[in-house]
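Office hours follow-up: a student asked to see two folded examples consecutively, so here they are.
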Amino acid sequence: MSSPPPATPPPLLPEPARRLAAWCAVILLVTGVISVGVWLSIVFKSSVTPVLLALLGTALLRPMHKRLIRMKVNRSLAAALTCLAVLAVAGGATYIVVAALIDTGDQILASLRKAADDLSRHFGAAGTSLEDIATNAKDLATKFGGTAASGVLTGLSVVGQMLATAVLALLLIFFFLRDSDRAAEGLRSLAPRSGGDLVVAMARRAYGAVEGFMRGTTFIALIDAVCITVGLLILQVPGAIGLGALVFVGAYIPYLGAFISGAVAVLVALADRGWVIGLWALGVVLAVQVLEGNVLQPMVQSRTVQMHPAAVMVAITAGASVAGIIGMLLAVPLTAAAFGVLSELRARYETNETEPAEPA
């Protein structure tokens, strides 16, 4: 007669503790992978930054490229025309902003002097200090001119890097648009055979989230810029078109960009037209922001990508600490892509759990 099997020893930890330990191990592993990825991105930022900017540009411009293809335009020619359209729009916006600043720079400086005079009459010493700064602006610039001149080469180097990044990103946009139909097969060939479909599905979900974010943000930015520009033109604020272009560009950094560009518009109105027009400009900016936050953002972003404002602010702060302005610009789209990947994984996990087990 065979002896009974030995009793299984009880586990060292109860089931809840083991589940918690497993989740902690997964979180530590994911955090380690993300940290290594961020470190590699910082080390190779000269190559990573153009790629990420090109992905954002491709997500924004792909509808235009697809429309050209539907019109029987060759894929390469359609990609080239799309990139030329980007150059035209970016160059036009840059020209408008620079021209507005050049045309109204002296007028804004004179308005600041006038505002300083008003402050000196109402607030005494504080206003006098502002008046002195405005009056002696050229003397201060001359005094520190030597120090500024020593950094000319550094400034030229930074400008050169920015131009090289922009050119490389534009070339990558061309190739990404032209070869977008082969992206899925390329990912499937790189992934293990059993996980190819999952990798492609996650990539599609991440790209869809980025595309939806860029499309929705562009639509909201256009409405904000048009409304604020019209309001500033009615109030006869100098450089209204340039300030509207600044609002459009700043809208790609959620919350913070709109706040900074709106504050600049209000300050220009306050300096040039006085307190009354400045308050009216503030009212226009606040009205547009209320319209955006309560109507446009829920209506547009809910159809593209849904992110809590707290998650957006944390992402922007983290991006700024890692890569400055570029990090602030890339933080929210990358976070949206990460949320898209997590959504795909959760959907597949829930589908696998709800499927009935096959009979033995």
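And the second, which I mentioned at the end of office hours:
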Amino acid sequence: MSDEVPWETVLARPHPALRPGVISYRGIRVALGRPRRRLETPIAAATLLLGFEQPVRISRPGRAPVSLVSVVNGLTTVPALGEHGGRISGVEVLLAPWAAFTLFGTEQYELANRSVAPEELGAEFTELAAALAASPGWTERFALLDEVLLRRWRAGAPGSARVVRAWSLLARSRGAIPVRRLAEDVGWSVRHLENRFREQIGLSPKAAARVLRLQRARRLLAAGHGQAETAAVCGFYDQAHFSGEFKAMTGCTPGEFLAARRLPTAADVTDRLTGEATSLLVPADRGALFSKTRAGRSRQADHPALRLTREAGT
């Protein structure tokens, strides 16, 4: 039996006015007798984690680690390492990035590739986390979330319908539609589309397309498709291009990622998106994953999946 036990893994029924932008609510409780480290790969969603218990230490390549009980994450093109002391609980809300623009009240490029405390976006989030912790059950918690998020939605700056359409087209194509065609469809120049995307999505259309292609590629690999087939279906030039992009965005090659997902400990991972391979467990006794040394053997040593597979003797 897994020792990472959610209280419940539930998709709430958000208020109809919010439903298009809210991907899921998820109740989380982890109660272990030891620390835990997880490698999280990029997903096409912004995250609001309202924590009730211990902090999570989050590290990303090129950024100083932060320790937070509650966390807001924007879209990212790089992996993140999350570490906690063995106990963590709270509610995680996954949002379409254009919805995060309105709900958080900030330009999304300020949150891209970052993890920040929700109180930086308003004291209401601190009060909400306390109220959720004090609520008697998940029905009450999700109802409170609906109430507060709907109130912020109505009070927030509305996003551009053209940005929402461009994001929807890009997401439906799984990152395959050319940026110029997106711009033509919404009636903007490429430059204007890029500026509005950074403001309301957090990344440029090209960078967002990379995340969407990676998400599709992980899904295909986890379903048993080969690397060459996956590279072709997802629009990479060749398998080498696919492997390089995968490594740049996850910290490991497709083969290393799959090998780590097949280890016995992988059964203890609850992925952030239903039906997606988003996360890896990393041994707690290892050093920093994101070294400044990026060449030769030291570069290979920083791959978390490679460390896992070596430790398992595969």
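Two things to take away from it. The beta strands are 22-31, 36-40, 46-51, 56-60, 63-68, 71-73, 80-84, 87-95, 115-116, 279-281. The first helix runs from residue 97 to 104.
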